[in-house]
Specification:
Blueprint (H helix, E strand, L loop, with lengths): L1 H22 L2 E6 L2 H19 L2 E6 L4 H10 L6 E5 H9 L20 H4 L9 E14 L11 H4 L9 E4 L5 H8 L7 H5 L2 H12 L5 E4 L4 H7 L5 E5 H10 L4 E16 L7 H11 L2 H7 L6 E2 L33 E2 L2 H20 L2
Parallel strand pairs: 1-2, 1-3, 5-6, 5-7, 8-10
Antiparallel strand pairs: 3-8, 4-7, 4-8, 4-9
Helix pairs in contact: 2-13, 4-14, 7-9
Length: 362
């Protein structure tokens, strides 16, 4: 009897494995590369592959919104899931370039709270679901700063007191807001100022004061490398990238939280994705409470669900508490500015043109 039972169990298990293998599929997920994609690989991709038998093909982009738009408009979509910024999620959705998200498919919190109530306000849109809260900050190499350390965005622009090159992302977004804060505009007033032509010019004029000292970066992995190579004295950067260099790689880098620009990154499915149903299943899995908390053990980005907060513990080094390093930690939020996604969804093209014209001007 035992032999028969063992045989039956083995046969059933084998049948299940064969069936699972036959049904296994593949999706292609586009993200930003470096330490960020590694955090997603460890927290989402590997567990999902192990639990489902499906495969994730990971590809990187300096900004996934750009190739997604190009692919959909060309009718040649190879990406199933893309990790994109909030304003891009709104804009691409409005342009009909993303699939709509069925919020009823998103998993409830462990205590039964519906996903729509458990995600941070604004984290779910018609076409995208947030996974992280991140910020643009500036950072410096403490081994190369003598005297008082920089503490404000005004210090970032003070090349007399703090000589050396400055790294900045080659884009209007975040740079304009940070320039205005450095020029004395209160964070609460930044977007009302930036809505005017005078405000835009004020931001460009402020950036012009250090234009000759700027080294432009385009990929998130570049700022910590610019610091490590000594090419810049300070650089704007994504907070998680600096955290990973400082804590994960023991670099003497320090983040300055003054005027940090808070934002979401969200998962979206491009219109016409070749594996739409499987892509939606992946998003459902990846945005569950436990998975979002797991990502926070790999990089200092806050999870987009309230129920994940209490599960955030140590970095994967087993000793570093993650909470103080999150952009949403109370001590880091004193002068924070939340990215106005509606402003950028409406004016990104216009301000990018003005920014690019300024770049080319003498």
């Amino acid at each position: 009897m035992k032999l028969k039972t063992l045989f039956t169990t083995t046969a059933v298990s084998a049948a299940v494995m064969v069936a699972s293998s036959a049904m296994a599929g593949e999706i292609t997920v586009m993200s930003w590369g470096g330490a960020y994609t590694k955090s997603q690989t460890e927290a989402y991709y590997k567990p999902w592959e192990a639990e489902t038998g499906h495969k994730v093909n990971s590809v990187d982009s300096d900004n996934p919104a750009t190739p997604i738009k190009a692919q959909v408009e060309a009718g040649n979509v190879s990406i199933d899931v893309a990790d994109i910024e909030y304003s891009d999620a709104i804009r691409l959705c409005d342009e009909g370039l993303l699939e709509e998200i069925d919020t009823s498919s998103l998993p409830a919190a462990p205590d039964g709270t519906a996903a729509t109530a458990d995600f941070i306000e604004g984290a779910i849109t018609d076409c995208a679901v947030a996974n992280i809260v991140w910020s643009t900050v500036f950072a410096y190499d403490s081994s190369k700063i003598s005297g008082d350390a920089p503490t404000t965005l005004a210090d970032f622009y003070d090349t007399a007191k703090y000589p050396g090159k400055r790294g900045m992302r080659k884009a209007a977004k975040a740079n304009m807001e940070m320039a205005l804060i450095a020029d004395g505009v209160a964070p609460a007033d930044v977007y009302s100022v930036l809505e005017t032509e005078e405000g835009v010019q004020r931001a460009l004029d402020k950036m012009a004061t250090i234009k000759d000292d700027i080294i432009w970066w385009e990929a998130g992995a570049q700022p910590p490398q610019l610091l490590a190579d000594g090419e810049v004295a300070m650089t704007t950067a994504y907070n998680g990238r600096i955290f990973n260099a400082a804590i994960g790689e023991d670099k003497p880098f320090e983040i300055v939280w003054d005027g940090q620009i808070l934002d979401f990154d969200l998962y979206a499915v491009p219109k016409g994705a070749p594996n739409k149903e499987l892509a939606m299943e992946f998003i459902t899995y990846a945005t569950a409470t436990e998975r979002l908390a797991a990502q926070a053990s790999w990089i200092a980005y806050g999870p987009a669900r309230k129920s994940s907060a209490d599960l955030v513990g140590l970095f994967n080094d087993g000793k570093t508490e993650m909470a103080p390093h999150m952009p949403t930690a109370p001590a880091n939020m004193k002068t924070a500015l939340v990215n106005n996604y509606e402003f950028w969804a409406d004016r990104d093209s216009e301000l990018s043109e003005q920014f690019n014209a300024w770049l080319l001007a003498n």
